[in-house]
Design a protein that fits this description.
Blueprint (H helix, E strand, L loop, with lengths): L2 H13 L24 H7 L19 E3 L2 E3 L1 H13 L8 E5 L5 H9 L4 E6 L3 H12 L4 E6 L9 E5 L7 H11 L4 E7 L1 E4 L4 E4 L10 E7 L6 E7 L5 H8 L2 E2 L4 E3 L4 H10 L4 E5 L5 H9 L4 E5 L14 H4 L3 H15 L4 E4 L3 H4 L8 E6 L5 H12 L2 E9 L15 H12 L4 E3 L14 E4 L12
Parallel strand pairs: 3-4, 3-6, 4-5, 6-7, 13-19, 14-15, 14-17, 15-16, 17-18
Antiparallel strand pairs: 1-2, 7-11, 8-9, 10-11, 12-13, 18-20, 19-20
Helix pairs in contact: 3-4, 13-14
Length: 462
């Protein structure tokens, strides 16, 4: 957490040590409640900036109020309505909102009053997070609200909101949050025009935030209510996965390039950063890897494909290693997978890969992770069949990019199949850095590439 936030958290805790009653006349005045002019006349004067005052504010924190259009109104209510009107988006099409630095939840209060269907996530530090939780859970007991403690992230929100928070961050934290914002559809920000933050050693001005050039700025304006502030709204353009990978990772070598420092868990974090939520694992076995996917990819829907029986075309009696894959063993690992995936958004497809692929629409998946039969023919078949299921811009990936001649009945011919397929089709692919694995089962590299075009079956003799 930034040094500024450390000091801020400690200061606010000290200010609230005697309780939260009346905090909107103390702590809140350090933000958008103007303490010098916190009176009815001033609230009436700034109300002219809002087109539609359609609700009363909550009395949480004992604010100064006035009455407008038969509603009990505060400075914070006016500010929140002013900000939300500026966003000018169809909130009936917005399903999820994530607000970084929400304070006690003034903006969330207005949005949830108007649009109770919203899934709302707040990321903040104590004691603000505790205030927001107390305030909003009381006002909206049936709402879908999550409260996350910094540095937790929430990926894939339709709308991100950052009000008077970005200039409080260190440069590293700022970059991390913009990575999170890039997984969404819109970003609304409001902050100081200029601010020096000596605690973090940072200086900010308008235009100093790392906003990608591909994002469309919907508006930018000076804030007529709060001095030296401005706000802006951005439509977030889809991330180019290839460019994102090249910018995020140091790539070692050529064909394939090793993504320095990336392990298998980092691969799933990459999926999350790219906004992927619809995936498939081919070859589930005990479900441990699928469980990791759910841990690192928010809002994931996963198709889990495994027949849990021996393929009739494969000679399982070939080695002592393969004799463990008898019916008893397969029943056991199936139970383990079912247990790990229960209460998850997982669809278990208990079929051989080539049959399971028929259950999935072409171009419907964000990613596929192939870890099934490791013999050359079956790996090649899986790549061909499951590549068709991934949309353009999605990722085709899998496990065990290595040779293993010590297991004749289950030679890991993945490497040869991946090499041959990518060479024939001119595909640039990458592998994870096997020296950075966390779990023993992840010691072998994963392989991946971004699907750039549809590859049609070759027509022989045409």
């Amino acid at each position: 957490m930034s040094k500024f936030w450390d000091k801020l958290s400690a200061k606010h805790k000290e200010m609230l040590k005697n309780g939260i009653h009346g905090f909107r006349n103390t702590v809140a005045t350090r933000y958008f409640t103007d303490k010098r002019r916190d009176n009815e006349a001033y609230i009436q004067s700034i109300a002219r900036y809002v087109k539609n005052i359609d609700m009363s504010d909550s009395m949480f924190g004992n604010p100064v109020t006035t009455k407008i259009n038969n509603h009990i109104v505060t400075q914070d209510l006016i500010n929140s309505m002013f900000e939300i009107e500026a966003m000018d988006i169809d909130f009936s099409k917005i399903k999820s909102v994530c607000e970084v630095g929400a304070g006690y939840g003034r903006t969330a209060y207005v949005l949830l009053k108007r649009y109770p269907h919203l899934k709302y996530t707040i990321i903040d530090i104590p004691p603000a997070l505790d205030l927001a939780k107390e305030h909003l859970t009381k006002e909206f007991p049936n709402a879908d609200i999550k409260f996350l403690l910094v540095p937790d992230k929430s990926l894939g929100a339709d709308l991100y909101i950052a009000i008077s928070i970005l200039t409080e961050l260190s440069e590293k934290e700022l970059a991390d949050y913009f990575e999170m914002f890039a997984t969404g559809k819109y970003l609304y920000l409001k902050d100081w025009k200029t601010k020096v933050n000596p605690d973090n050693g940072t200086t900010f001005s308008e235009g100093s935030f790392p906003i990608p050039g591909s994002w469309e700025r919907m508006f930018k304006r000076n804030d007529p209510i709060t001095y030296n502030f401005y706000d802006a709204m951005y439509r977030i353009k889809a991330i180019n996965p290839v460019e994102y990978i090249r910018q995020k990772y140091t790539i070692i070598g050529g064909k394939p390039g090793v993504l320095k420092g990336m392990n298998r868990q980092d691969l799933y974090k990459l999926f999350a950063e790219l906004g992927f939520t619809n995936g498939c694992e081919v070859g589930v076995e005990k479900g441990k890897n699928a469980q990791d996917m759910f841990e690192y990819i928010p809002n994931l829907k996963l198709y889990a494909v495994d027949p849990y029986k021996q393929h009739p075309q494969y000679s399982y009696e070939a080695t002592a290693y393969l004799r463990r894959w008898d019916d008893r063993y397969l029943r056991m690992v199936k139970r383990q997978a079912q247990k790990r995936l229960q209460n998850k958004n997982a669809v278990i497809i208990e079929k051989f890969s080539e049959d399971g692929a028929k259950d999935i629409l072409d171009n419907s998946l964000d990613f596929v992770y192939i870890d099934g039969d490791h013999s050359y023919d079956f790996v090649m078949q899986d790549i061909i069949l499951w590549s068709r299921k991934v949309r353009i811009g999605g990722i085709i990936s899998g496990h065990d990019y290595f040779y293993d001649n010590s297991k004749p009945g289950r030679q890991a011919k993945v490497t040869q199949a991946v090499n041959d397929y990518t060479k024939v089709h001119g595909i640039e692919f990458y592998i994870t850095d096997e020296g950075h694995y966390v779990k023993k089962g992840d010691a072998s590299s994963s392989w991946l590439w971004v699907k750039m075009e549809e590859i049609s079956p070759n027509v022989v003799g045409a």
